[in-house]
Specification:
This protein is of the alpha/beta class. It folds into two domains: 199 residues, 3-Layer(aba) Sandwich (Rossmann fold), CATH 3.40.50.300; 130 residues, abc- transporter (atp binding component) like domain (Coagulation Factor XIII, Chain A, domain 1, Distorted Sandwich). The chain has ten helices and 18 strands. α4 crosses α5, α4 crosses α6 and α5 crosses α6. The termini are far apart.
């Protein structure tokens, strides 16, 4: 790499967790002044519970000018800490980071908005905070407002905006910066689906203009679309750096085996859920064996074992199948069958979802589990708890090694009809000399 736009070498950030020495204890001692003096002395002498963690440690990489690089990792892995250090919001405790060029940061959309000011005033205020000149804001003002779709309300105080209008205007301001290096942190979580798509398009435009982009997101589909290269950060360290398809696949597959089963003997559920426990998830082949490797020519089944501890007015349990790059293929719920859509009594149940033969194409897939009372309560939601792989067998039964793998996620056999058109038959007969004289022209009466 020639002259990189971003160079990070051994970067690290350490945070101290626990109580600051004496601060909380002094407050408690003061509050307990009526207590006996001996108890107060014992309380004041108690050691402070303090420790430190490395939110980011020994991270090194370079990003070339005009390169668009994605960053993935679970919550708490250190992704946002990295961007905050690159934005000079947080000072590193180890290593160094260099950025060459004007930097724009989309880290916390809406920071700097004042609820008492109008949308128009906040565009100028927020633009100035983000580093835009007044002439630049004036030049882009109409474009910003149109992008946010708040033209009718631009002179209304933003405290009267809906949450969607608020974040749309905030993102619109930030998205119209013209930096040489753009740092983006999970901004696609704002707004509805249509606006998120517009945000993606805008970031894509920035990347096509030759600017450098570092893009943090849990939306791996968006990362695959925008970024040819991805960094995977795990537990504060750089786990992988390479082509997006490969890194995202490794990220999703981390800790998920192909044994075909995941079990929780004591049961698992969302916090504060006492009426439901998930016990196990399995994949069974056509013979009923638990396995993570499936012959695509044969049907197979997902099996979900769960316990209902209290009577429920309604409950649905389902599985979601995803590709290893995060594309949802299908969601199947037991309530799709009216026999299982009524009240549910306590007990241990095993639900089986049958998957027809030759539905999925060859490759590896992830399984997530969800159970809940729609619009009332989510009972359990576990993402990518299991994986399985479909044999490399084509839709016609021919191994891929003997031909090319079909494109797409599904490979169902579709019914085709083939009929010879009469016009085609007559034309072919005329050309071959066996059809007699051609039909008269329609112009002749």
């Amino acid at each position: 790499m020639g002259d990189p736009a971003i160079r990070v070498e051994g970067l690290g950030k350490r945070y101290t967790i626990g109580e600051r020495p004496g601060l909380g204890r002094r407050w408690l001692v003061d509050a307990w002044r009526p207590a006996p003096a001996g108890l107060r002395r014992d309380l004041a002498a108690m050691p402070a519970a303090r420790s430190s963690i490395w939110a980011l440690r020994d991270v090194s990489f370079e990003v070339g000018r005009g390169e668009v690089v994605g960053v993935v990792g679970r919550n708490g892995a250190g992704k946002s800490t990295l961007l905050k250090m690159l934005s000079r919001i947080v000072r590193p405790d180890a290593g160094s980071a260099e950025i060459h060029g004007r930097v724009g940061s989309l880290l916390e959309v809406g920071s700097g908005f004042h609820p008492e000011l109008t949308g128009r005033d906040n565009v100028f205020l927020n633009g100035a905070i983000l580093g835009m000149r007044k002439t630049e804001i004036v030049r882009k003002f109409d474009e910003i407002v149109a992008f946010a779709g708040v033209e009718k309300f631009i002179d209304t105080a933003v405290k009267h905006y809906s949450s969607g209008m608020y974040v749309r205007l905030a993102f619109a301001v930030a998205a119209h910066l013209e930096p040489e290096v753009l740092l983006v942190d999970e901004v696609l979580a704002v707004g509805d689906a249509a606006f998120q798509s517009k945000c993606l398009d805008r970031i894509g435009e920035v990347s096509h203009e030759g600017r450098t982009v570092l893009f943090v997101s849990h939306n791996v589909g968006a990362i695959n679309r925008l970024c040819s290269r991805t960094l995977w950060i795990d537990d504060g360290r750089l786990k992988a750096d390479g082509a997006s398809d490969d890194v995202i696949s490794r990220y999703f597959m981390a800790g998920v085996g192909l044994d075909g089963e995941r079990a929780w003997p004591e049961g698992v559920a969302n916090p504060d859920v006492t009426e439901f426990k998930l016990r196990a998830v399995r994949v069974r082949n056509a013979l009923g064996d638990v396995t993570g490797v499936i012959d695509g020519r044969q049907p197979f089944a997902f099996e979900v074992v769960y316990e209902i501890l209290e009577p429920l007015p309604y409950c649905r349990v389902g599985v979601i199948i995803e590709t290893t790059d995060g594309v949802a293929v299908v969601a199947a719920y037991d309530s799709d069958d009216v026999r299982h859509s009524g009240p549910r009594l306590p007990g241990v149940f095993t639900g089986s979802c049958m998957v027809p033969a030759e539905l999925l194409n060859s490759g590896r897939f992830m399984v997530s589990v969800n159970a809940g009372i729609p619009r009332v309560k989510n009972l359990v939601s576990l993402e990518r708890v299991l994986s399985f792989e479909i044999f490399d067998v084509g839709a016609s039964g021919i191994p891929v090694s003997e031909g090319r793998r079909r494109r797409g996620v599904i490979r169902s056999r579709f019914e085709w009809r083939l009929e010879a058109c009469r016009e085609t038959t007559r034309t072919e007969s005329a050309v071959s000399g066996h059809g007699g004289a051609p039909p008269a022209s329609r112009d002749r009466q």
